[in-house]
Amino acid sequence: MSSDEFTTMNENLVGPVVRSGELADAVIDAAIEDNPDREVMVFEREDYVRIHAERNCVVTRASIEKHLGRAFNMAMLEIEMPSFKGRMQSSTEQMRWFYVN
Asked: Using CB atoms within 10 A as the burial measure, which of 16, 20, 55, 98 is most buried?
């Protein structure tokens, strides 16, 4: 099953779509770390990566910094995130995507 088919099947999935590269890899690892009670699903394409969890997905600046190995400004994630699924809340410390009925 392709990622698009799976995403269409499960409307409860939320999370970022990030351009492939070093930051995407760090966001994947951060999402897994920051959502220990959820399965984080990663759909890799050539140009981008879909990082989704069911109903709620959080990524913190601290986790991204840990996996990048350097300081990180959360506003930079928005620049590398051409899309996302769900509603989004952002702050200087974290981003959260969530599902609303």
From this structure: 16
For 55, 78, 99, the CA distances from 38, given in Å and listed in that order, are 9, 23, 14
Distance of CA 13 to the CA centre of its chain: 11
Residues 6+ apart with CB under 8 A from 30: 59, 60, 63, 64, 66, 67
The burial of 9, by beta-carbon neighbours within 10 Å (0-12 exposed, 13-18 middle, 19 or more buried), is given as exposed
Residues paired with 87 in a beta bridge: 98
Element (H or E) spanning 65, and its range? helix 61-68
Q: What one-character DSSP code corresponds to residue 77?
A: H
pLDDT in tens, 60-97: 999 999 999 999 999 999 999 999 999 999 999 999 99
The C-alpha atoms of residue 69 and residue 87 are separated, in whole angstroms, by 29
Angle at 52 between CA 41 and CA 62, to 5 degrees: 100
Q: Are 95 and 54 in contact, with CB atoms under 8 Å apart?
A: no
